Amino acid sequence: SQYFSVNVNTGVIMVSERIDREQLCGQNPRCFLHLKLAIENPVEFYRIEVEILDINDNPPEFPSDEVSLRIYELASLGARFPIQPAQDPDVGTNTLQTYHLSANENFNLNVKARTDGGKFPELVLERALDRELRAFHHLVLTAEDGGSPPKSSKTRITIHVLDANDNHPVFDRPSYGARLVENSPLGTLVVKLNATDVDEGPNGDIRYSLSSHNSAALRQIFAIDEQTGEIRVQGDLDFEEATVYEIEVEAKDMGSPTMEEHCSVVVEITDVNDNAPEVILTSFSSSLSEDAPPGTVVAVIHVRDRDSGEQGKVQCHVSPDLPFQLRKDYEHQYSLLTSTSLDREHIAYYNVTISASDLGSPPLSRHTILPISLADVNDNAPQFEQAFYEVLVAENNPVGSVLVTVSAADPDSEQNSRLSYSILRAGGTDPGLDPTRYLSIHPTSGQVSAKLPFDYEQTTYLQFHVEVSDGGSPALRNRTLVHIFIVDQNDNAPQVHFPRAGEDSATQLRISPSTAPSSLITKVVAIDADSGRNAWLSYHLVEATDP
User: Fold this and answer.
1) 231: domain range?
2) pTM to 2 decimals?
3) What is the DSSP string of 417-441?
4) Where among 270, 296, 325 does a domain terminate?
5) Are strands 525-527 and 495-498 parallel, antiparallel or unpaired?
6) C-alpha of 269 from chain center
């Protein structure tokens, strides 16, 4: 290029073309153009050096208008991050002199100067980074030369803070509460947990699980979805076994190393009326004496209901038709008492139904049957079937023949109803007629037998009492009156009392020859010891001579 021209008349050398020192000499501190000048007539040659002086016609230039840096958020304080320097083709004071960094809280600018005069900027971390607080930092780096006036240029620095797993998951509340009714079906949602991790990527990816602090029994009742954090019922809930469950839950991120957080879920179980009352016999006598007075304690009953509140309160009652009543001793105890007098001979056995009902809605109830038998006491005297007995006995009866059987009954039982019979002399009876002389009675069957044959001609009537005694202690007795009437038999021949004559002898009577027919000669008087028809007599001439 012809940067210069010469005036051939005056010899003045002039610039004929714009000179760009940076293009000619680059970064050399001194820039010279060497010219040869020829003068004619005579011809002479001169060597001319033209020094090109720099002017500040170039600003510093960064390689790029934007610089992107990726810095780990756990970078140590004092860490340095070089920035590509700006280039200024000017030299001397017109070249790059300094850098300026925009105001920020985390970085300072350090400019390294090399021996060749180059200046290299670098960012120095002065304050720890926190991606979760600020993920991107935007800085402006200005390069300025020393010209007058100075020229400058800028580059924008974007710092992307890379995530480190420096934050643990955080639940949206420190603890959770839930309320469930017992017997909730499987799959019932208890609560949905929500934990967040301000880290990103795997460092912020959360998995939920039940803590190992939970018992094996609790793990069988509740399950958690590791992705959604939903806790659901997977076992049987029973208020009577546990009223409150405290579930320890942990949330872990997927960073390396992993970080975790814990929270508790308190699950209150609401009671439902799912338990019928229980009736427990503390004491019970299945046998009760029939003479027990009203108010006698038969059984002591303890009642309980595993439910709570009104559903656990129990009321007991018995049928009003029975001679028993319940007395409430205190909250959970009743006594079964007799309410009236008892009579085993009327009713010997009772099935007493104790009905226990809770106050739930609807109420649940349980029925317990107490078999109660009445033990006999000797409170009934034997009773004869007849108030009195009348017996007709033909005289000359065989010895040992049964004349009559008396029978009594006793409504008592066992020993108290075992009867024995005996013969007593009846009042007003001839003292000479001892009935036991003639009669005997079987002590258990009541059969009255003759010990001797009766003779009507001696005894026509016999009266005595039969006494019956039961086997109780003391024994109870009763009597009946037996009338025995002797029936006459024709067992006596007539006896001639007049005229008296010896046996097989004749009685001589003297009559006058002039006695007229039909005249009374004598009167034969005969007597028969029998009675009734057996004593009716008729007279016949068995043998007579004429006339």
Assistant:
1) 170-270
2) 0.55
3) G--EEEEEEPTTS-TT--HHHHEEE
4) 270
5) antiparallel
6) 12
- Give yes or no: residues 121 and 194 share one domain: no
Report long-range pairs for 493-496 (Cβ below 8 Å, ≥24 apart): 493/528, 494/526, 494/527, 494/528, 494/537, 495/526, 495/527, 495/528, 495/529, 496/524, 496/525, 496/526
Residue at 246 is within a domain? yes
344-359: pLDDT as tens digits = 999 999 999 999 999 8
Exposed, middle or buried by CB within 10 Å (0-12, 13-18, 19+), for 162?
middle
Q: Which residue has the tokens 């036991």?
A: 436
Say if 523 falls within a structural domain: no
Tokens of 26: 């680059």
- pLDDT value, residue 439: 93
Do 368 and 398 lie in one domain? The reply is no
Bridge-based pairing of strands 365-375 and 287-289 is: parallel
pLDDT on residue 503: 63
Question: Residue 524 and residue 501: Cα distance in Å, rounded?
Answer: 11
In which band, very low, low, confident or very high, does the pLDDT at 333 lie, cut at 50, 70 and 90? very high
Omega prior to 371 cis, within 30 of 0 = no
Q: Which of residues 451, 471, 487 is at a domain's end?
A: 487
Q: How high does pLDDT run on average in the chain?
A: 90
CA diameter of the chain: 271
Least confident of 83-97, 125-139, 403-417, 435-449: 83-97
